[in-house]
């Protein structure tokens, strides 16, 4: 299915992004009152791979139903919220890049907001930005590419970059004045000569495979990690909330550019994860952002990780 967006549709989508007119609380570098710094890095084991989620920041926003409940009645949305002990009028966003030690290379998935949180989280994980070998962009919304440059210089100076060809082609052709297109021009285009473009089924490095999950954006891609017979999927923005987008994958999400295609991708990938009992890491899931998917009724339930896959 080919996604075709008018410039007006792209502008509308960009205006509805999670960070619009909002101040994000970054990951903290130090504690308060002598207390230890909060955990902003959590490591897991996947066969011989090391997988670390990095909390770049978080934010609370009002208007949850307008963001995540497209097509639902107020009563339906309130009922699902109450069943899961969360307010129906507010939503907590988390921003969580993932670092994968693939053995031969350190691979970072997405770069965060560009407010310093990614550097803090990497430091807690014992990694410096110049040690990153590969930066993979699941898609090019601002909260995923914001950390690519710091004060005009490359944050990950020794890295090569990977993203879906469809994603780069769409945003790099956007006219000036589009919020996302302008940020792509500022943060991504300068790295074009260091960038590799891939499609569905292509490999980033051995054990990391791209899977098309378009709809959220034209080239939104999720990634299957495989090591020693174990699997894990990095789902990016496939599902932006751990309750509403799982319980009702068909409910429209304001940030999804092609809402029907996004819902189709969401149901397809979540069905696979539930059937095969494959764990996932989602960029906006509650930190540490890892968990499992359980089929429930006509939808799904996100089951947060506890002590499984401990690194």
Describe the secondary-structure layout:
Layout: H1 7-15, E1 25-26, E2 41-46, E3 49-54, E4 57-62, H2 64-68, H3 74-83, E5 90-95, E6 98-101, E7 106-109, H4 117-124, E8 134-137, H5 142-145, E9 149-150, E10 153-154, E11 160-164, H6 165-172, H7 179-188, E12 195-198, E13 203-205, E14 208-212, E15 221-227, E16 230-236, H8 244-247, H9 259-276, E17 280-282, E18 290-296, E19 299-304
Parallel strand pairs: 7-8, 8-11, 11-12, 16-17
Antiparallel strand pairs: 1-4, 2-3, 3-6, 4-5, 6-7, 9-10, 13-14, 14-15, 15-16, 17-18, 18-19
Question: What does this molecule look like?
Answer:
The chain is α+β, with helices and mostly antiparallel strands. The protein has a single domain, classed as 4-Layer Sandwich (Metallo-beta-lactamase, Chain A), CATH 3.60.15.10. It contains 9 helices and 19 strands. The protein has a 7-stranded mixed beta sheet. The N terminus is likely disordered.
């Amino acid at each position: 299915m080919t996604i075709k967006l008018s410039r007006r549709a792209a502008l509308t989508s960009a205006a509805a992004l999670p960070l619009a007119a909002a101040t994000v609380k970054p990951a903290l570098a130090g504690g308060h009152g002598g207390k230890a710094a909060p955990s902003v890095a959590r490591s897991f084991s996947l066969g011989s791979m090391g997988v670390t989620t990095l909390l770049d920041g978080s934010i609370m926003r009002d208007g949850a139903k307008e963001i995540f409940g497209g097509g639902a009645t107020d009563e339906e949305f309130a009922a699902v919220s109450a069943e899961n002990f969360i307010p129906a009028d507010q939503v907590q966003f988390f921003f969580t890049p993932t670092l994968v030690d693939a053995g031969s290379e350190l691979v970072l998935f997405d770069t965060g907001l560009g407010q310093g949180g990614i550097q803090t989280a990497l430091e807690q994980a014992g990694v410096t930005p110049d040690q990153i070998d590969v930066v993979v962009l699941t898609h090019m919304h601002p909260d995923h590419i914001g950390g690519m440059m710091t004060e005009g210089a490359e944050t990950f100076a020794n890295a090569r970059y990977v993203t879906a060809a469809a994603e780069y082609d769409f945003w790099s052709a956007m006219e000036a004045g589009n919020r996302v297109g302008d940020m792509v021009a500022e943060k991504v285009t300068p790295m074009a000569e260091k960038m590799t473009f891939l499609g569905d089924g292509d490999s980033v490095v051995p054990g990391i495979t791209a899977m098309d999950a378009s709809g959220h954006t034209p080239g939104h891609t999720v990634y299957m990690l495989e090591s020693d017979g174990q699997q894990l999927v990095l789902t990016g923005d496939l599902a932006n909330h751990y309750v509403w987008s799982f319980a009702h994958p068909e409910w429209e999400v304001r940030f999804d550019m092609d809402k029907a295609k996004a819902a189709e991708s969401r149901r397809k990938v979540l069905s696979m994860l539930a059937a095969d009992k494959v764990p996932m890491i989602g960029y906006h899931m509650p930190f540490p952002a890892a968990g499992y998917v359980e089929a429930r009724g006509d939808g799904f339930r996100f089951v947060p990780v506890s002590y499984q896959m401990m690194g």
